[in-house]
Amino acid sequence: MPIYKTLLAVFTMIFFVSCLNSEQKKQDQERKEQALKIWFEQPTQKWNEGLPIGNGSLGAMLYGTPSKEIICLNEETIWTGEKLYNRDKKAGPEVLKKIQQLIFDRKFVEAETYLTENLLTERFPTGTMTNQMLANFFVERTGFDSITNFRRELDLNKALQTTYFEKDGITFKRESFSSYPDKAMLIKYSADQNKSINLSAYIKRTDNTQIQLSKNSIHFSEHVGDGLGVKFQSTIHFEVKGGVSEVKDGKIVISDADELIVRIVAASDYHGKDPKQLTEANLEKLLNKDYENLYQTHIHDYRSLFKRLDFKISEEDGEDLPTDKRLQQVKQGSVDNYLTQLHYQYGRYLLISSSRPGTMPANLQGIWVNGFKPPWNADYHININIQMNYWMAEMTNLAECHEPFLEFIGKLREMGRITARETYGSRGFVAHHTSDAWYMTAAFGRARYGMWPMGAAWSCQHLFTHYEYTKDKKYLAEHAYPIMKEAAEFFVDFMITDPKTGYLVTSPSVSPENDFITNDGEVATVSMGSTMDRSIILELYRNCIKSAEILGVDETFREILKSQITQIQPLQIGSDGRLMEWMEEFEERDPGHRHISHLYALHPSNQISKENTPELFEAAKKTIEHRLANGGGHTGWSRAWIINFWARLLKPEKAHENIIALQQKSTLPNLLDVHPPFQIDGNFGLVSGITEMLMQSHDGKINLLPALPAAWPKGSITGLRSRGGFELDLYWDKGSLTTAVIKATMDGSFRLQVNGKLSQEITLKAGETYNWKD
User: Fold this and answer.
1) 491-513: average pLDDT
2) Could you list the residue ranges that cross the membrane (predicted)?
3) With CB atoms counted within 10 Å of each terminal CB, which end of the chain scores lower, N or C?
4) Radius of gyration of the chain measured on its C-alpha atoms
5) Considering only CA atoms, which of 399, 405, 554 is closest in space to residue 486?
6) Hey, how many other C-beta atoms are within 10 angstroms of the C-beta on 195?
C-alpha cells in the first residue's frame, strides 16, 4: 500500500477514535447530570403541580393531560395599572408632627387611627395594579384518555421540560424550553412513528383579547386592565413537518405530521416600544434558525450560569423514585439528601429562569402567574420577600441574575422622591412595604404593614453586597452609592429625638405586620424606633460611610451619618433574655408571628455574631426558640428565613431540622414553595440557608462548613463565591472538611476559619489559588 494511503488510513482511524472518545465523554457527562431531574409518573390538572420554564421574561407553567395540555404562558411586563404620581397623601410635616406627638405621649392607638386617616393611602382592590398571565395555550388530542408509560420531567441541567407517553405502541414526546438569547419559547412534538402527530391548538385569555388565526399562526393582542395597563402582542407559530395544518372552529388543527415545532414570542409596550413590531422582528429571526440551533444556543447560555456551581450530598442518581414520592416519604418522617440536593439546585434554576440582565426582577411568584388576580398581585413586596429572592444570587455564582433587582432599586427613586417630599417633607427617597411594575412607593393600606418606610433602605443592602463580591468601584460610584446616599438622606431628615430617652428614632414605626400589647392592655401597631428600623438604618449608614471612604467623597455627609449613629439606641435584650422587637419591652400579640423582623441584625445583616456580640448572639437564639415554640415558621418563606438564622447561629442540626420542616409543610409536589399559596421566595431562601450552612464570609473572614449537619457526612460544593471576589471548592468526609480550594478572581486578602480556628491573613493575586488540606 502506498505510504500516503497508509497515512490517510491512520489519520482516519485517529480521527474516528477521537470522535468516539469525544462522544463517549459527552455521554458520560450527560449520565452524571441525570441526577438533577424533577420527574413524575402521572400527569396533573393542577397549575401548582406543573413544571415551570422561563428565560427571565417569557415563562410557562406546563401541566394538563395528553388529552388536554395546558401551557400557562407568562410575559413579565403584562401588568395592569399605570404610573400614578398622585397616590401619596400630601400629609407633610404638620400631620407628621401630630402623629409623633401622640406617640411620644404613648397614645399609640390614637396615633394609628390618625395616621390611617391622614397619611396612609387606601389600598387598591386586588387585580387593579397586578401582573397577569399572558394566556392559556391549550393543545388537545382525541382518543388519548388512556395512555401508558407516562413520564414528565424537568431537567435542571438543561432547563428542558420533557413529557413522554405511549399510545397504541407509539411513543410520543414533547420537549419545551424558553431561550434567553433568542427571546422565545420553543415546543417540539414528535413520535417514533411518522404521521402520528394529530392535535388541535388554541388560546384563551379574556373577552377583550383580539385573536387572529392562520394555518400556521395564532396572533393575539390586548390592552389589559380595561385599557389602563400595557398593550401586548404575541404570536404562536406552528412549523409542521410531514403533515398539514388548517384553521377549524377557532383552532389550529394539525393532521398526520411527523413533527411539530412551536415558536412563541411576546412583547408589550411597557418599555415604550411597539409590541407588534417587536414580535414580528423577533419571529422573523427565529424562523431563520432551525430547532436544533435554537436548542443548542439555549443550552450553551443556560449552562454558562447553572454549571458554575455543583452541590453534592448524595450518591443517588434520582431515577429510582419520582420526586413526588420522595417528597411524600419526607413528609412521613424520612430524610432524603438527594431531594435536598435537587431542591437546592432547583432554586438556582428558578432564579436563572425568572431574573436575567435586562429583565424585571423576580416577583412574589417569579414570572409564573396563573390568571388575572394572583395572590398579592404577584407584586414586589419589599419588606422581606424580594430581598429573600436575591440573598443567594452572589454566593451561588449568579451575580448577573442579581442585576434586575439592583436596577429596580434605582428606578424606585423617581416615585420615592415624591413620596419623601409630599408625605414626610423630607429629602432623599423612600419606599414602603410594596411596589410594582410602576415603581409605586406610597404608604398605603393598614398601619401594621403600610406604615413602614424602610423598603428602599433594606433593598440598598443588596447594592453594597454586590460591591463586596465584585469590588467594582465604577459600579459603586455610578450606581450603588448615589442610591444609598439618597436613601440615607431621607432618614437624616426623618428621624427625630425622643424627648424621654434622647435617642434618635423613626416615628411612626412598626415591626412589619406584627402588633404589640400596650401597658394599658390595648392592641397597637405603631410606636417609634422599632428594632428592625434601627438595624436597617445602622447598616445603611455604615455602608454609605464605607462607600464614601472608598470613593474619597462626601466627607461632610459621612460626619453627619457618624454623628447620628451614636444617637441611635443600641439593640436591647429584654427581661426574658430575648432580643426586644420594639424600643420598649412590649408583649407581642402574636408570639409565633411569621415575620421575625427584630433579627434583621443577625440575618441578612451581620451586626450580631458570636465573636463580636456574644450577648446579642445568645438573645437571638432565645428569640427564635420562642417564635418556634409559639407556632412560628408556618409560611414557607418564614421557615426559609429560620434556616438562615440557625446557620448564622452555628446550629447545624437546628438548620437541618428546619430544611426538613420546609419540605414537610411548605413544599408542593413540584418542589415549589407554598406560603400558602405558591410564593417563590421560600425556594430562594432555602438556597441561601443551605449555602450559609456551608460557607459564610464577613469582615474579611471566610468561614468554611460553619453549620454542617450530621445528615451530610460526606459531600462537596464547588463554585461558591465569597465576599472579596473569591471562588471556593469545598470537599468534606466523615463530617469534616478535607479539602478547600480558594481561587482569587481579583487581588485580595482574607482570613480562613475552619473548625473555629482562624488563620493569619492570606493574600492572593488575581488567578492565584490557595489550597487547604486536612
Assistant:
1) 98
2) none
3) N
4) 28
5) 554
6) 12
Q: Residue 334: how many CB atoms within 10 A of its CB?
A: 11
The residue written with cell numbers 428614632 in the block is 505
What's the whole-model pTM score?
0.95
Closest CA to 237 of 252, 251, 211, 218: 218
Residue 712, all three cell numbers = 451530610
DSSP 312-353: ES----S-SS-HHHHHHHHHTT---HHHHHHHHHHHHHHHHH
Residue 16: per-residue pLDDT: 47
Beta bridge partners of 38: 154
40-52 core/surface letters (b: 16 or more CB in 10 A; e: else) = beebbeebbbbbb
**Bridge partners for 173 per DSSP:** 164, 190
Sheet with 231-241, side-by-side order of all strands: 37-40, 148-155, 160-167, 170-179, 184-191, 259-268, 231-241, 217-223, 210-214
pLDDT of residue 87: 84
Q: List the end-to-end C-alpha distance of the chain, in Å, as a whole number.
A: 60
Q: Could you tell me whether strands 148-155 and 715-722 are parallel, antiparallel, or unpaired per DSSP bridges?
A: unpaired
Q: Which set of grid coordinates corresponds to residue 286?
A: 427565529
Query: In this model, does residue 200 exceed pLDDT 80?
Result: yes
CA distances from 154 to 323, 347, 638, 736 (A): 11, 13, 27, 33
Residue 425: other Cβ atoms inside 10 A: 17
* 661 within 8 A of 632, measured Cβ to Cβ: no
Grid cell 408583649 is found at: 587
Contact 603, 617 (CB under 8 A): no
Nearest to 419 by CA among 383, 455, 378, 366: 455
DSSP 214: E
CA 740, CA 704: separation in Å to the nearest integer? 9
Q: What is the residue-wise DSSP string for 385-435?
A: HHHHHHTTTTTTT-HHHHHHHHHHHHHTHHHHHHHIIIII--SS----SEE
Taking residues 560-587, report their average pLDDT: 97
Strand ranges inside 420-489, DSSP E: 434-435
Please report which confidence band the pLDDT of residue 5 belongs to, taking 50, 70 and 90 as the band edges: low
The residues that bridge with 398 in the sheet, in sequence order, are: none
Cis? peptide before 66, omega within 30° of 0: no
The three cell numbers locating residue 558 = 459621612
CA 619 to chain centre: 30
Q: How many helices (H) and strands (E) does the chain have?
A: 20, 32
Secondary structure (DSSP) of 717-774: EEEEEETTTEEEEEEEETTEEEEEEEEESSSEEEEEEETTEEEEEEEE-TT-EEEEE-
How far is 352 from 55, CA to CA, in rounded Å?
7
145 vs 68, 162, 173, 438, 552, CA distance in Å?
9, 19, 16, 45, 70
Q: Give the pLDDT confidence of 253-298 residue by residue, as tens digits.
A: 999 999 999 999 999 999 999 999 999 999 999 999 999 999 999 9
In a 13 Å sphere around the CA of 687, the CA atoms on its Cβ side amount to 32
Q: What integer pLDDT is reported at residue 10 of this predicted model?
A: 47
| Domain spans, the chain | 1-33, 35-79+129-306
Max CA distance (Å), the chain: 107
Q: How far is CA 247 from the centre of its chain?
A: 41
- In tens, the pLDDT along 367-380 reads 999 999 999 999 99
27, three cell numbers: 455521554
Count other C-beta atoms under 10 Å from residue 193's C-beta.
12
Report, as an integer, the average pLDDT of 301-321.
Answer: 95
Q: What is the number of other CB atoms lying within 10 angstroms of the CB of residue 250?
A: 11
CB 597 within 8 A of CB 645: no
**Cβ–Cβ under 8 Å, residues 176 and 160:** yes
Give the CATH number of domain 35-79+129-306: 2.70.98.50
